[in-house]
From TrEMBL:
Keywords: Hydrolase. It catalyses: P(1),P(4)-bis(5'-adenosyl) tetraphosphate + H2O = 2 ADP + 2 H(+). NCBIfam families: apaH, PRK00166.1. Belongs to the Ap4A hydrolase family. HAMAP family: ApaH (MF_00199). This is Bis(5'-nucleosyl)-tetraphosphatase, symmetrical. Gene3D superfamilies: 3.60.21.10. One of its GO terms (molecular function) is bis(5'-nucleosyl)-tetraphosphatase (symmetrical) activity. Its EC number is 3.6.1.41. InterPro entries: ApaH, Calcineurin-like_PHP, Metallo-depent_PP-like. Residues 1-83 form the Calcineurin-like phosphoesterase domain.
Length: 283
């Protein structure tokens, strides 16, 4: 029995298969935690989503910004769905899309396992959020995504404002919670997200902090595994284990064993980008 957390797949099917081989994944006894952003940009999003879905009895996956974006696009008119990139269209116009997207929509924003001593989220937590507060706010969104109101939530999801405050209500509250869990990298001490900052620590404007280093942040009683921040790379510190190592940008795909006494990390090469024009990592 092993529990592995795996970084952002972003439609990188071959690296995913290679990583599962490298960790000798055994569906009879192992569990996989995916940090979100299963889809987009890698070119094989439909194959990747089908693979993860086929393993769903062994899998917990948290929603990332690209996953939520796919769900939102899937609710638009067909002519608008034809305007998105070919990789996402491969999912949107697949015969099994409804099965796959219904499963994806039911994924949580936060997964907490107190027995194991770990929690997983895609991007970050607000400075004041304890584990319990994070569970409460993730639960608010999860309930809506699993209810008949999910279309309304997805329609009102986009936007950078407002910053999180406990007094928010309605779509503003939903948007602020989703932005923290799925888009956070840097924030101001009171938690305002600096959406434009996507580089390595040290490159940010003065007064901004990586979300896990904000002065006065809440104590969290569980170790955290997350993804989303490819320019940060593999980072372990402050109880946070960030494992998006940029597979989609030609970096690596990373697995971290969560139930081992000592940290065990397995990496495989990411997508082959040698014949693609250079692109700047982001979003
Ligand atoms: Mn992301």
């Amino acid at each position: 029995m092993a529990v592995w957390a795996i970084g952002d797949l972003q439609g990188c099917y071959d690296p995913t298969r290679r990583l599962l081989d490298a960790i000798r994944f055994d569906p009879a006894q192992d569990r996989l935690w995916f940090c979100g952003d299963l889809v987009n940009r890698g070119g094989e999003s439909i194959e990747t989503l089908r693979l993860v879905h086929s393993l769903r009895d062994n899998v917990v996956s948290v929603l990332g910004n690209h996953d939520l974006s796919l769900l939102a696009i899937a609710e638009r008119r067909e002519e608008d769905q034809r305007k998105v990139n070919a990789d996402l269209q491969g999912v949107l116009f697949a015969p099994d899309r409804d099965v796959l997207l219904d499963w994806l929509r039911r994924c949580p924003l936060l997964h907490v396992d107190r027995t194991l001593g770990w929690m997983m989220l895609h991007a970050g937590l607000a400075p004041r959020w304890t584990t319990e507060l994070a569970e409460r706010h993730a639960g608010e969104i999860q309930r809506k995504l699993r209810s008949d109101g999910y279309r309304k939530l997805l329609r009102n999801m986009y936007g950078d404002r407002p910053a999180w405050s406990p007094n928010l209500a309605g779509p503003d509250r939903d948007r602020a919670i989703i932005n923290i869990f799925t888009r956070m990298r840097y924030c101001a001490p009171k938690g305002r997200i600096a959406f434009e900052e996507k580089g390595q620590p040290g490159t940010q404007q003065p007064g901004l902090y990586p979300w896990y280093e904000v002065p006065g942040r809440a104590e969290r009683d569980l170790k955290i595994v997350c993804g989303h921040w490819s320019t940060l790379g593999l980072f372990i510190g402050h109880g946070v284990h960030a494992i998006d190592t940029g597979a989609v940008w030609g970096g690596k795909l990373t697995a971290l064993q969560l139930d081992a006494d000592t940290l065990r990390i397995v990496q495989v090469p990411g997508r082959d980008v040698s014949d693609l024009p250079p692109r700047k990592p982001g979003a």
